[in-house]
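Class prep. Write one:
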Amino acid sequence: MMRLLWRGGSQSHAGTHYTVEQATVFTLPDEPPPIIVSGFGKHSIDLAARIGDGYMNTKPDAEAVGRYREGGGEGLCYGKMDVALADTEAGARTLALETWPTSALGGELGQVLPLPAHFEAATALVGEDDVAESILCDQDPQAHIDRLREYGEAGYDRVVVQQVGADQDRFLDMYAESVLPSFAAAGAARA
């Protein structure tokens, strides 16, 4: 059962996709958070430009950013980059497949499958090569720097980087020691 909190008294909702009984919101922020719309096709990018406070995509796609801007989108553009860091690239590819096989599902398949069993069936057809196309498994910090620069060159304002799997320390250490300093140096040179 989904529970929501709603200011100004309890509300119930019985809908097609979920039921909410006596939802109550006790506190709301003074200013609502921005709504960032993710979009991969023309229609969703146009929607982001019309109603979103920003745009997000998982690829460094200059055409998508351009379409968002040309459609009137004024908010920040966010890129999302998934990475897998392990002892070796082969280990990273295995990690990526084990933890994020849905990243290789093409088209809208990942959005329309209704049940976990359907995801399991669809990802049974996915291999390490498929996942490595969407998750950066390269263990060389320069590959991460280069990919991040691709997002910048495509017009993205911010990039969210996600390490798949549980070894977050490896990710944080590599980025702190080898990736982020190169961007700090570039920022200082521009200033």
